[in-house]
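Exam revision sheet. Question 4 asks you to relate a sequence to its structure. Input first:
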Amino acid sequence: MAGQEPFVQSGDALNDFLRAFWQRQIDTAEQETPDFKHPALPLARIKKVMKSDPEIKMIAADAPMVFCKACEIFIAEVTARAFLVADANKRRTLSRSDIAKAITKSDQFDFLIDIVPREEPSATGQASNVTRKAAEPTTVGVLDGRPQEESARRGKSRSVSDGAH
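Answer key, structure tokens:
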């Protein structure tokens, strides 16, 4: 989407950003014609995730496209919120901690609390260690309908449901 303004500008207030962001999403949805031949995200992967629920037997042809658009909007909003966090700290590079902080600022992202590690302030006032339970593997993705540990994504293929630690 070349030629469009960025979703968020340096120094934007969160409420101003959200108002403009969602108005832009509505305007875009009303004007655009979806490109079914070139979706922004892989539809096969979206279908695979949708089918990971054992109660889902059939998926309508247009359902993955709707999820694709929802994922695009979700990613854009979280990225822009994380940019506001980085910008408030006078940085231009998004970090994992920016995403975590952006997510903790809104109740609507509470479903991500167990997925996105939270950083706790250290004695110096800086964010330091990522909070994680050492005894439990960290689920960071889904592969073949089963949650995968962080180590599985690095090449060591072990599933959380396998019970292997």
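Marking note for examiners. The first strand starts at residue 119 and ends at 121.
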